[in-house]
Write a structure and sequence with these properties.
The complex is a heterodimer of chains A (about 280) and B (about 180).
Chain A: H1 3-9, E1 16-20, H2 47-60, E2 64-68, H3 78-85, E3 91-95, H4 102-107, E4 116-121, H5 127-134, H6 138-151, E5 155-162, H7 167-179, E6 187-191, H8 197-200, E7 217-219, E8 222-224, E9 232-233, E10 236-237, E11 242-244, H9 251-262
Parallel strand pairs in A: 1-2, 1-7, 2-3, 3-4, 4-5, 5-6
Antiparallel strand pairs in A: 7-8, 8-11, 9-10
Helix pairs in contact in A: 2-3
Chain B: H1 27-32, H2 36-50, H3 57-70, H4 74-86, H5 91-97, H6 110-124, H7 131-140, H8 143-165, H9 172-180
Helix pairs in contact in B: 3-4, 3-6, 3-8, 4-9, 6-7, 6-8
Classes of the chains: A alpha/beta (about 280), B mainly alpha (about 180).
The structure holds iron/sulfur cluster.
Iron/sulfur cluster (SF4) binds next to loops of chain A.
């Protein structure tokens, strides 16, 4: 058993390896960590590389894969790639849920009843409030897409990213996700993190290394401590949570991460519930 | 202006953070921090090669200033002129090492002259070291010292080209001190 596999099995290292599929997005949310927008540099990691990472992660003893961006579904080849990746390890893909046209939904057929879950952002139970930070029509597109995905046999989770939310508003949001077919255990609520565009809008909580789980995250720029690491501010990728520029072989950043985890006080990522 | 962005403490990558623990780590660390895994091994190596060891501080600074002068590295010449003063070298010795006065008008010790001949041959020459230079150092320095001093020349040359190519800036207090000593 490799040192990584042992650390994952012992719970010392989180089991999921994340990858940033891209950095561009059809939306431009106020709190976006990566300053993503339609015209952002794409920084696409590439299909081949994603499959390689999936292989290497499985060989090293990681247990799960995560795909984020940008908006990963802007990449036409993503559904097939996710299907192939899921043959190695279960995959969670983060999406804004606004691109699921009939055509894209049809292209998701290979994902039905596979180990691929989608995590879709939905912040507020009222369209106007939700769309204020995420852009026009966001709410409508998401509430339309979720039941369709569920009907297609795709596991969906809802992620709510807010500074704060009143109990009554949360109750209505939970009623809505249940109505859309998403059970309570698949709804996560997390704070806005003060990185990327959130800094410019004076939003969110400061998250440092100590506040976030050590989930190995690979991008075109290197390997990072967490998916909250390779954020962008003023067009420059942050390096404060960079581990190594080398990502191939994956054992290089994985071993460096393991070393860094060993130097960190135990249980230190629970304070902000950033997951 | 440096050729690359120098990384400040706020953006210091995780493996680089220990190097920022005591304040501004200088531009070699701040540039190498762009590639943390390289910084992580390079700085301990540089520290071992250039730092305190079984060779005297004075001998090491002779090697570093001379090599840096031969490679015309402004950053290393100025930075190590200040270190050489701290190590007890005189102004005249430093000027000679920098090529601003003849070496043998200032240095008389045969061991040091053999060492400087070795440095010149290693840093400035191409191909094999001339036999008389090898004989001279062999007679006066032990094998382990020759190994360490040769590695010191090599490490300095690496830093010389790195600092020159990336146009690393000399620290302001060093410039101030050298101005006062008329050694800029
Ligand atoms: S937060 Fe997500 S959906 Fe919004 S702009 Fe950023 S990447 Fe796109």
């Amino acid at each position: 058993m490799s040192a990584i596999a042992e650390a994952v099995a012992d719970g010392k290292l989180p089991g999921r390896v994340w990858m940033y599929a891209d950095y561009h997005c059809n939306l431009a949310c106020t709190y976006c960590l990566t300053e993503s927008a339609p015209k952002s540099p794409h920084r696409v990691i590439g299909r081949e590389r994603m499959l390689e990472i999936a292989d290497e992660a499985a060989e090293l003893g990681f247990t799960d894969l995560g795909v984020t961006g940008g908006e990963p579904f802007l990449l036409r080849w993503l559904p097939e790639t996710l299907a192939s990746m899921s043959e190695r390890l279960p995959v969670l893909v983060l999406t804004n849920g606004t691109l699921f046209t009939r055509r894209l939904l049809a292209s998701l057929a290979p994902l039905a009843h596979r180990d691929v879950a989608m995590q879709i952002s939905l912040d507020r139970p009222d369209p106007d409030d939700n769309d204020e930070m995420r852009g026009k029509e966001n709410f409508r597109k998401v509430v339309e897409a979720v039941p369709r995905l569920v009907d297609q046999g795709i596991e969906v989770r809802i992620a709510t990213t807010v500074e704060s939310i009143e109990d009554s508003e949360l109750d209505r949001l939970c009623a809505l996700h249940r109505e859309l077919g998403i059970p309570d255990e698949d709804h996560i609520i997390r704070p806005i993190v003060r990185r990327g565009r959130a800094i410019d809008h004076d939003l969110g909580v400061v998250a440092q290394q100590i506040d976030v789980p050590a989930e190995l995250t690979v991008t075109v720029d290197g390997a990072f401590w967490s998916p909250f690491g390779p954020t962008v501010h003023d067009g420059v990728v942050d390096t404060d949570l960079l581990i190594t520029r080398t990502t191939r072989p994956l054992s290089t950043p994985a071993n460096a991460l393991l070393r860094l985890v060993g130097e960190r006080p135990e249980g230190s990522d629970v304070s902000l519930n950033i997951r | 202006m440096p050729t690359v962005r120098l990384i400040g403490a706020e953006q210091a990558p995780l493996l680089a953070r220990p190097f920022y623990a005591n304040g501004d780590p200088g531009p070699i660390v701040a540039s190498l921090a762009q590639v943390p895994e390289l910084l992580d091994v390079a700085i301990p190596f540089i520290g071992t090669a250039l730092g305190p060891s079984s060779i005297s501080w004075r001998a090491k600074e002779l090697v570093i200033v001379r090599t840096s002068a031969l490679l015309e590295c402004r950053y290393c010449v100025q930075t190590h002129t200040a270190v050489a003063l701290d190590a007890g070298l005189s102004r005249e010795e430093i000027l000679a090492l920098r090529g601003e006065a003849p070496i043998d008008s200032v240095f008389r010790d045969p061991r040091e002259l053999a060492l400087l001949g070795w440095v010149d041959a290693v840093a400035n020459g191409r191909g094999a070291i001339p036999g008389h230079t090898t004989d001279a150092i062999h007679g006066l320095w032990d094998d382990h010292e020759v190994v360490e001093l040769t590695m010191l020349v090599g490490a300095t040359m690496m830093l010389n080209r790195f600092a020159t190519a990336l146009q690393l800036p000399v620290a302001e207090d060093t410039v101030h001190r050298l101005t006062e000593e008329d050694l800029l």
